[in-house]
Amino acid sequence: MFLELAGLIAGFVLLIKAADILIDGSATLAIKFHISEIAVGLTIVSFGTSAPELIVNIISAFKGHPEICYGNVIGSNIFNLLIVLGIAGLISPLLLQKDTVRKEIPISLAGAFILLVLSNSFWTGGRILSRLDGMILFSGLLLFIYYVLKLPRNVPEIKHQDMSALKSILLIAGGITGLFIGGEFVVRNSVSLALQFGVSEKFISLTIVAIGTSLPELVTSIIAVRKKSSDIAVGNVVGSNIFNIFGVIGITAILKPISYNTEMDVDLLILMLVTMILYLLLKAGKHYLLNRLKSAILVILYGVYIYYLLFRG
């Protein structure tokens, strides 16, 4: 068991570092070729923080572990909303933009509902997320990116080093390689731990795997809050959740259709409930403010969710 835990931790560390390298190389290369910083920030950087989830999902799908595919995304999204935002709000109250509350959080909620409908295949009677379903989800991501690029927002400047195009390409290649190796470590050792502890892959993916792959979002949001950039902290979470559903699950299904365990319906409904609770908390009051009291409620709710998972087994 010690070796599996060590391998799992090593996989998470490698995933985080590889994602960071991928972002640096991609952003620098894009700016060097005069791609706008807003395009870089909303595509490359958001992809980078969700890259661990994507790689873990692709490896899990091809190795025949569909529950990890779903548990990783659903668990990550719940962790992002309750813990990442909760901890960020406890450090410093977060003042959200109107569009984030009125449009983007509802888009995240709609994404979870669409995934629920597609996964249950109500019109075919099957329980599989097909390549067509994956294309539908991925189309949703493209529409979201188009919507965001049309918004008149101030996007923070992306800090990057002055490096050659060759070095940027090498960083990108190294980051992608690291992601695949780290993802392999995470999937292999997660499955092994599930077998040794006698728990389901679903439980491991909703907790340990989901938390591990969400560490980039947690670190990014904490750093953003400490620099008084609440837009980055919140946008990172909401954008990542949207990308996880439409992008991570969508791309995975396009590459390899995913069989669906209907027990995940409960977790998808919990994700939708958590999203609605966040929306209502933010709507309470004159300003869209996530203060320390509301943040504490989010963190407590995550504790309740973990207790429920332990009780459910």
What does this structure look like?
The protein has 313 residues and is mostly helical. The chain has one domain: A middle domain of Talin 1 (Up-down Bundle), CATH 1.20.1420. The chain contains eleven helices and four strands; from the N terminus they run αααβαβαααααβαβα. The protein has helices at 2-32, 37-62, 66-91, 98-120, 131-149, 165-197, 201-213, 215-226, 230-255, 264-283, 292-312, and strands at residues 94-95, 128-129, 258-259, 289-290. Helix 3 (66-91) packs across helix 7 (201-213) and helix 6 packs antiparallel against helix 7 (201-213). The chain is globular and about 50 Å long. The two termini are 20 Å apart. The model is unreliable at 154-158 (pLDDT under 50).
Structural features:
11 helices; two-stranded antiparallel ribbon; globular; 313 residues; mainly alpha; single chain; A middle domain of Talin 1
> Per DSSP, what share of the residues sits in E-state strands of 2 or more residues?
under 5%
Strand order of the largest sheet: 1-4
Question: Which structural category do the helix and sheet elements fall into?
Answer: mainly alpha
CATH topology label: A middle domain of Talin 1
CATH H-tier superfamily: NCX, central ion-binding region
Indicate the percent of residues in helices: over 70%
Low-pLDDT stretches are 154-158
Q: Rg to the nearest angstrom? A: 19 Å
Examine the secondary-structure arrangement and name the CATH architecture.
Answer: Up-down Bundle
Describe the global form: globular
What is the β-strand count? 4
Number of alpha- plus pi-helical segments: 11
Largest sheet: 2 strands, antiparallel
- Look at the structure and give the mean pLDDT: 81
